[in-house]
Amino acid sequence: MSARLGLSPWAVLGLAALGVPRVVAHDLGPVGGVTNTLLVFVPILVWLGVVVSLHLVRPEIVRPFTTLLAIGSTYGVLVGVAHQLLWPWAFDTPPRLGGNLAGAVSPTVESLLLRTFAFGSSLLTGVAVGVVVGAAGWVLVRLAGRWSSGRLRHYGP
Q1: How many of the other CB atoms lie within 10 Å of CB of 21?
Q2: What's the number of CA atoms in the CB half-sphere (13 Å) around residue 80?
């Protein structure tokens, strides 16, 4: 894994874990606007900074899109696990199925369904974040490559 991503699995896990405090803060209570903004964007900016910097130093090893997709996917798993662990404290009353499905299945099955879909939603969110941030990283690397090539051409030896 580290050969393709340019990061060890522990580094991927560590970077992804930077996003977990926002999940905890969100599940356990309201978070102020500035704090929420910082908890959302600082981890993503750190991901981008680390991966783009590594690519600029070791371009033959680090693939920004793939690496950021791996970090985002790992983030999705961590978000899903955090939501499951915090489930009892996240709701005043547990969520229930509504409409035609209200009361159609036992409470145990209902809870299992809701938790499964919540976990799947977390995974998809993590992958989507990874795709968007990976695309941004890919663009940044291309722009940085053009800038450094142009700079060397005009100002270099």
Answers
A1: 16
A2: 20
Q: What is the pLDDT of residue 74?
A: 98
d(C-alpha 93, C-alpha 85), whole Å: 16
Contact 76, 20 (CB under 8 A): no
How far is the C-alpha of 86 from the C-alpha of 92, rounded, in Å?
12
The confidence score (pLDDT) of residue 29 equals 81
Cβ atoms 52, 144 nearer than 8 A: yes
Q: Return the structure tokens found at 17.
A: 């874990």
Residue 71 Cα distances to 6, 39, 79, angstroms: 12, 16, 12
Query: Based on the structure, what is the number of domains in the chain?
Result: 1
Written as six digits, the tokens of 157 are: 């030896």
**Domain residue limits at 17:** 2-155
- Specify the pTM: 0.86
- How far is 157 from 147, CA to CA, in rounded Å? 16
Please tell me the distance from the alpha carbon of residue 64 to that of residue 21, in angstroms, as a whole number.
24
35 token code pair = 């704090």
In tens, the pLDDT along 56-105 reads: 888 877 789 999 999 999 999 999 999 999 998 888 888 888 888 888 88
